[in-house]
């Protein structure tokens, strides 16, 4: 059975809130590339995360859920 990460369309995740395990706040989905979901967190000092699409575990009406913790997300942070 395919996982949610293989059956969504980019427009299904854009502008949704990104959450990790433990309800970690990973920002808002800004872009979707071939390999990554790009999220942005913050108002003035914005953090951008390039999270692999394979980390998506669920998509609902408001959130994109990733199977990573807030600490694990730091490895995907880019300037």
- The DSSP helix count reads 3
N-to-C SSE series? HHEEEEEEHE
Overall radius of gyration: 11 Å
The major beta sheet can be summarized as: 7 strands, mixed
Strand order, largest beta sheet: 5-6-1-2-3-4-7
Task: Describe the protein's architecture and organization.
The protein has 79 residues and is α+β, with helices and mostly antiparallel strands. The chain has helices spanning 4-7, 10-13, 70-73, and strands at residues 17-19, 25-32, 36-41, 47-52, 56-59, 63-66, 77-78. The chain has a seven-stranded mixed sheet with strand order 5-6-1-2-3-4-7. Strand 5 and strand 6 form a beta hairpin. The longest helix has 4 residues, at 4-7.
What does this entry show, briefly?
The protein is an alpha+beta fold. 15% of the residues lie in helices and 42% in strands. The chain has helices spanning 4-7, 10-13, 70-73, and strands at residues 17-19, 25-32, 36-41, 47-52, 56-59, 63-66, 77-78.
């Amino acid at each position: 059975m395919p996982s949610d990460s293989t059956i969504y369309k980019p427009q299904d995740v854009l502008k949704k809130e990104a959450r990790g395990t433990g309800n970690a706040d990973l920002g808002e989905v800004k872009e979707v590339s071939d390999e990554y979901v790009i999220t942005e967190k913050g108002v003035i000092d914005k953090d951008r995360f390039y999270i692999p699409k394979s980390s998506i575990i669920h998509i609902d009406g408001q959130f994109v859920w990733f199977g990573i913790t807030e600490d694990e997300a730091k490895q995907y942070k880019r300037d």
